[in-house]
Amino acid sequence: MSDARLSVFKTYKLYVGGKFPRSESGRVYEVTDPKGKWLANAPQSSRKDARDAVVAARKAFGGWSGATAYNRGQILYRIAEMLEGRKDQFAREVADAEGLSKSKAAAVVDAAIDRWVWYAGWTDKIAQVVGGANPVAGPYFNLSSPEPTGVVTVLAPQESSFLGLISVIAPVIATGNTVIVIASENSPLPALSLGEVLATSDLPGGVVNVLSGRTAEIAAPLAAHQDVNAIDLAGADDALAKELEIAAADNLKRVLRPQPVDYAETPGIDRLTAFLETKTVWHPTGSLGASGSSY
Amino acid sequence: MASTSASASVFEYAPAPESRSVVDIAPSYGLFIDGEFTEAADGKVFKTVSPSTEEVLSEIAQAGEADVDRAVKAARRAFEKWSALPGSERAKYLFRIARIIQERSRELAVLETLDNGKPIKETRDADLPLVAAHFFYYAGWADKLDHAGFGANPQPLGVAGQVIPWNFPLLMLAWKIAPALATGNTVVLKPAETTPLSALFFADICRQAGLPKGVVNILPGYGDSGAALVAHPDVNKVAFTGSTAVGKAIARQVAGTTKKVTLELGGKGANIVFDDAPIDQAVEGIVTGIFFNQGQVCCAGSRLLVQESIQDELLDSLKRRLSTLRLGDPLDKNTDIGAINSAEQLSRITTLVEQGEAEGAERWSPSCELPSSGYWFAPTLFTNVTQAHTIARDEIFGPVLSVLTFRTPEEAVAKANNSQYGLSAGIWTEKGSRILAVASKLRAGVIWSNTFNKFDPTSPFGGYKESGYGREGGRHGLEAYLDV
Amino acid sequence: MPTTAPAAAHSLGEVTASDSTLRRFLHGLPGVDAVGLEARAASLGTRSIKTTAKAYAIDLAISMVDLTTLEGADTAGKVRALGAKAVRPDPTDRTSPSTAAVCVYPDMVATAKEAVAGSSVKVASVATAFPAGRAALAVKLADVRDAVAAGADEIDMVIDRGAFLAGNYMKVYDEIVAVKEASGAARLKVIFETGELSTYDNIRRASWLGMLAGADFIKTSTGKVAVNATPANTLLMLEAVRDFRAQTGIQVGVKPAGGIRTSKDAIKFLVIVNETAGEDWLDNHWFRFGASSLLNDLLMQRQKLATGRYSGPDYVTVD
């Protein structure tokens, strides 16, 4: 075994506000592959980590939602570029997490990168698809435009640790929301590594915040949090989804209920529009001059 | 205030009442289920009164759980055929309804004024034209859903349970029923207990239009009837307009189901007036914003945010303008301010106004003689209001304006957004770039710049935050009733 | 030429100190949103004025008419007939009020004075090279002096719209001041020709400019262009006189002219007066209608109210 080098383990950390904190609780939990082999210890986030993530997401919201759609598209595309460069690492992590063969895991990672690219292209198009001028019956110019809902909590899919994860994060931030994502409980490592990619892309800190740990434990305070505007329940089972939907009603969060999704398929725009508000602005037009109203 | 009952003006407008004879209100009405008027299973009834006189207008069957079940079953039976009709056929039914509403608009305007207490000027010039326009607009969508931007062949959801408020009874009915039917859903609608009549007249319009039985069912009743409807397991879609408290209860109730929900709830709209505003039009916009429909409007501009440098000038103009408002008989064509809808609402307004005074805000109303019977509240404005005052935060839903000041655009936006609600806002300035900058920062679903309280069937309406979710009106309004 | 005499009389004196102060002041007036203004005017137009209120409004409107003939074909006979009608609008009903004035060209003033002699009816004369106003100032002033010398009680001048549109506000101001002086005791109505000023912002500026220069009345139009008095431009001018009085204590009258032909229209204008400037303006000293055919419609409506029957054109005089 003289040629066998002892590998360097990675310490997985949360990604909150552009930094990599440990859980404030100091807790970690064991992450294993589907066969039970230990992979790493992941931070087990607490309600206080969730609270900190909301603060970070709220702080980032103004700048991110105010950035031009073109700029957001550039940054999302940059993330895809960064991912492309670390494909092998993600393929390994996905293979471990989901028990996939090397080639299957690589295909999943390719699909995930392509998904970033797909959503990167949407940033400056969605407003034209779902907004527009309304032909009101009067001397007014009336324009409806989509605007981000705000701070969104996402329960990432439990099974699809990377492609599913990206499929639920990318549409939320593409439109200018900021996000707190709760990684797959059993397979959080690709999500935690994604934080490292995001940190080295041009994405402002706080736009995406990644928490790992017990989904139900982290989701409960987030679903009830008064400064969270929406919640995507993709990674919740029926019982948890119902409980969280009830909690979310306290400040009328927009709720995207869990639904069967094949993450391998090209998505529609539902996840983009789920966290958009429509704002309609009126302004008088009138005539060029005081040409006189009829009376 | 130039009350229609007493005024010292040299140009005293003589009473100009709209004729009540155009409407024939029956002494009693049943529930409208499966195309028939029927009594409630438990025989319960309630009375609806005219808020301006407290006169009993009619006795109305009150829907209970059994009736809700019956109505939902009828709607379910009707759904199969209705949803299978070619869109072009559904369209023609809706066009018929729109036309009949136009034909009967004077009758319906008088009816609405009697049952709701709002001035005939508003029902005649705002509510009824918008009701007809809404049906006309959605009629045209029924056979074009493939092109609405929701993908090919979008499908209806099924039975829609709809609960509407008393402030725009027939208009809210139109906002609910027109898109539901256009998309192929069938409907069980509960009007508010204080304003059931126009919905029951609408049932008759459905009959005249030949609408198939069970496509529209009308269940008058109180909150418990609405709750039973929302809870019914065979309802696929819940649409509610009303208070935020009830909206939250509904959101909890549907949790864990597949029911699709849209909520149009409360608001505390900020009407922001900058120092370069077109002042005279701003004053009109402020008046329209808070005194239209006695301020019983979810998107009312109930918070006036005025730039400190023009506060005195603006308030002088505003007070002078308020003194010309004419309060009195809602059927009088010259009445600007009608009755508050109910004793209960009047008491809520009174309580909040008293709280405003107790918290130190300065109350002002034009001198104003209120009629001796009915539910009335004089137009009121409060100055020296801060963000901390209850009257700056809670929705009063009455003719009460809270005046706050700001110094800079940033402060205006921050104060406007400092609310649990996010339904409407107004911006008054002659500077185009400021309008666009402020509009983009306001967290509200409808923003009126240099105008206020304008509505149109093509224009999506709905709120951010606790003002609810979903949009009504326009192409956007179809989404709430489709499986997309 | 005096430029500051009338301005010194009120608190806004410094406004007309120079070209630039005047420009700054006029451009600092609040803007007008056209849609909002017209919507307000239309809304007031929906007031329902019935029975006693209608009777009051019709008599008031008759008393506010400046019965006008401003034709190249005007003759002494035509003007005498007009004068007679102004004094006694309805020969069959002596309770009908007289009109406020007759309005004629300067060369008809003497004839008009004779025709209305002994009555309350005033003689107003257009002057200052009406309607275009395109003449030298000396000619305009001679025109005014001629009318005043002939006995005109009121002078209806036109402003130099060209100068106004070119931004030469001081020139417009100076001219009004000069005409005011030439008018002597006659009350001065300043016509803006709102249809040519084109925008509501301009109409508001012109209103203040006219009032600063000492106008006793501000008047919409000559009646000789496509767009004359409208509810909206009159409402705007009523806001101006209301605000001017609030600032200076000086009350100025308003005269919409041209295009007001029916009682229904006239009553709408009176509602606008009542609910904008207020009842202080509900008097022919402060509000006038520049009109001709309006009077007969008012008289027919008056007969209808008195008898309950609809009247017809044969029951009012054609003059």
UniProtKB/TrEMBL annotation, chain C:
The scientific name of the source species is Streptomyces prunicolor
The record's listing under Pfam families reads: DeoC (PF01791)
Q: Does the keyword Nucleus apply?
A: no
Class of this enzyme: lyase
Molecular-function annotations in GO:
deoxyribose-phosphate aldolase activity
Tell me the domain of life.
Bacteria
Q: Pathway, per UniProt?
A: Carbohydrate degradation; 2-deoxy-D-ribose 1-phosphate degradation; D-glyceraldehyde 3-phosphate and acetaldehyde from 2-deoxy-alpha-D-ribose 1-phosphate: step 2/2
Family, per the entry? Belongs to the DeoC/FbaB aldolase family. DeoC type 2 subfamily.
Q: What is this protein called?
A: Deoxyribose-phosphate aldolase
This protein's UniProt keywords? Lyase, Schiff base
Per its record, the protein catalyses: 2-deoxy-D-ribose 5-phosphate = D-glyceraldehyde 3-phosphate + acetaldehyde
Q: What is its EC number?
A: 4.1.2.4
Recorded hits in PANTHER family, A to Z, give: DEOXYRIBOSE-PHOSPHATE ALDOLASE
Q: What is the lineage of its organism?
A: Bacteria, Bacillati, Actinomycetota, Actinomycetes, Kitasatosporales
